[in-house]
Structure prediction request, 199 residues.
Amino acid sequence: MIGHFAFLAARTFLKGTPEDLFWISHVGTLMGGIGALFKNRLLISISLVALLSHHLFWLMDTSLWLISGHFPLGTTTYLKDATPGDWLQSSNHFFSVPFLLVLAYLQGGVEKHAWIGSTALFASLVLISFWFLPPTANVNSAHNLWPGMEKLFLPGLHGLSQGWYVVTLITLNGLGNYWLSNLVLRGMYALVLKGRKSV
Prediction:
């Protein structure tokens, strides 16, 4: 995971698109790799909670495109003309969550309040993206909803002022995504780990 981020850093630097380093998908993968290296349950938990639904939607959109030829959500249409290097750059969407699920299992599940750390991470990245990165890159949807996301979020987000849009985006991800993911993961690990203990 750390190796993937190192590859990404080198590639985006050479391509002149260093802003791509700041996607939650890539930073979460790096954080998960650091958590794995130091066997840090909190970092693993924060990364898993932060990536779970983002990567599931990416995988769903990409998989259905590969099967049917069209993107049901439209969030991964950039893959239509992707080079092998682009696919390698996006490959963390395939391996990060499965790897983190195993790591969290080995660590005894996810931390109860990991969603707060995931929200803080996302908020930091959105604000960095909003203030310092090119609006055309729209990293972490900091300036407007990524294509296809309007199908998942309230359509009214388009009508908000820029400041309220950012606040709402962070809040919706924190409470509607990360808190819920944290809850589901804790329930899942409670069942799985209980079964392991009873064997």
User: Anything to note?
Assistant: The chain has one domain: 2-198. The chain has a mean pLDDT of 93. Residues 115 and 178 are 5 Å apart (CA to CA).
